[in-house]
Amino acid sequence: MPKMNPEGIYVNKNLRLDSIQVYGFDYDYTLAHYSSNLQNLIYDLAKEHMVNEFRYPEICMEFKYDPTFPIRGLFYDKLKGCLLKLDFLGQLSQMVATMVVESLAGRKYKRCMAQGVLVVIKQACLIADIVQYFVDAKLEFDASYIYEDVNRAIQHVHRTGLVHRGILSDPHKYLVKNGQLLHFLKMLREKGKKLFLLTNSPYYFVDGGMSFLLEDSLGCRDSWRELFDVVIAKANKPDFYTSEHPFRCYDAEKDTLAFMKVDAFLPNKIYYHGCLKSFLQITKWKGPEVIYFGDHLFSDLRGPSKAGWRTAAIIHELEDEILIQNEDAYRVEQAKFHIFQELLGRLHATVAKNQKSQESGFAYHIHQYADVYTSKPENFLLYPSEAWLHAPFDIKIMPHHVKVSSSLFKN
Ligand SMILES: Nc1nc2c(ncn2[C@@H]2O[C@H](COP(=O)(O)O)[C@@H](O)[C@H]2O)c(=O)[nH]1
Ligand SMILES: [Mg+2]
User: Fold this and answer.
1) 239 is in an annotated binding site
2) Angle at CA 169, nearest 5°, toward 130 and 179?
3) Nearest-angstrom CA–CA distance, 21 and 81
4) Residue that is last in its domain, among 139, 169, 199
5) Which of 14, 23, 42, 46 supports an S-S bond with 153, CB 3.0-4.6 Å?
6) Domain edge (last residue) among 314, 340, 369
7) 84/130 same-domain check
8) What is the pLDDT of residues 149-168, one digit of tens each?
9) Per the annotation, does 149 bind a ligand?
10) In a shared domain, residues 28 and 43
11) Among 21-25, 106-110, 172-176, 209-213, whose mean pLDDT is lowest?
12) Is the CB of 169 under 6 A from ligand 1?
């Protein structure tokens, strides 16, 4: 069985790099890689807000973030207080919360679509810990309010800059340096490509992070800003792609926004807000020659792909997932699973039919909105800069998946 490359680029739609002239990047979780300490920081700040401001029980302050608990693409059932992993048909594939919901497995979990919400990794652990506390303490609670309060607390710690200041106060703890990133960006410039940065973050946060990430590899006189032709912060993605907001020029020294209309992007200037329509009018860049790298399905991938840009999804967890998938022990378990499926299929002809959809909703969206996906942008250095990237012939929702057949045991 082939081993997959954890740092490979996986292709959903054929992409010719020789036809790409413009490389755009999101910042958070795309150019900036974080250690697991960041989720811990967000969890603790949100937990403190819930206790101090929303008057959740003091005992919640003792909760600790569990990095092994959350995974991407979980649904929260606001009625029952369960976290669920649904496949792309809305079927329950795995229940991950501690509460037991009887007789759900294998059924199409329609109610979840109506009453459930997709939660992000940082919400999942805090929601689960609070629900568990209320259940264990036999206290009455409304599961939808827990979701709303956790969400409000997390919004608060981001909007007020608590998370940003926390990261910049100790960048060694939160940001992961990577010399290859500068290599990649410089290589693109040397090849004559245009580069832009388009982020929802405020400029001071990006500037602090980029300076820290590249300080060992950039000369002390050089600024990371010189790597980019255009830098846009506080872009308000995904509205950026559909709104008609004008750009404003930002003065980082004075922390002020100019009133003048922006009709050209000047080197070394920083722009705030704006929209795709003005961006295209000013740059004259054509959709299919632009590739945008981002980590967020709806902020970074859906809008650009609908606008005709090519898209590269950055999925940080991909490396670990592929390393596990490459292990012999994992493959044996997969083969056993397929044997069970085959046996069940023989027992009950309909079971096999119902078991077909195993891909998650997240996988489905990545397939829809990302032309290619990889764990970090620098992985492009492993391929020739003019490479033609081809989708695999055997059609799969996620091309990095290896289908382990039950015949593994027959060899
Ligand atoms: N208001 C909220 N802001 C959030 C949340 N989660 C992340 N963030 C912040 O958004 C930007 C994303 O930057 P980008 O470079 O990926 O475009 C970053 O500053 C985060 O701190 C949230 O739930 N609410
Ligand atoms: Mg991001």
Assistant:
1) no
2) 105
3) 48
4) 169
5) 46
6) 314
7) yes
8) 999 999 999 999 999 999 99
9) no
10) no
11) 106-110
12) no
pLDDT in tens, 242-282: 999 999 999 999 999 999 999 999 999 999 999 999 999 99
- For residue 145, with 0-12 CB atoms within 10 Å meaning exposed, 13-18 middle and 19 or more buried, which class applies? exposed
Distance CA(108)–CA(84), nearest Å, equals: 12
Tell me, yes or no, whether 53 lies in a domain: yes
pLDDT digits (tens, 9 = 90+) for 52-110: 999 999 999 999 998 888 777 778 888 888 888 776 666 665 444 434 343 344 444 44
Q: Is residue 310 part of a domain?
A: yes
Query: Would you say 293 and 287 are in contact if contact means Cβ atoms under 8 Å apart?
Result: no
254 CB within 6 A, ligand 1: no
Specify the pTM: 0.88
Judge whether 229 counts as a catalytic residue.
no
Report the distance separating Cα 183 and Cα 211, nearest Å. 15
Is the C-beta atom of 27 inside 6 A of ligand 1? yes
Helices (H) and strands (E) in the chain, counts: 14, 18
Q: Which domain holds residue 210?
A: 18-34+175-314
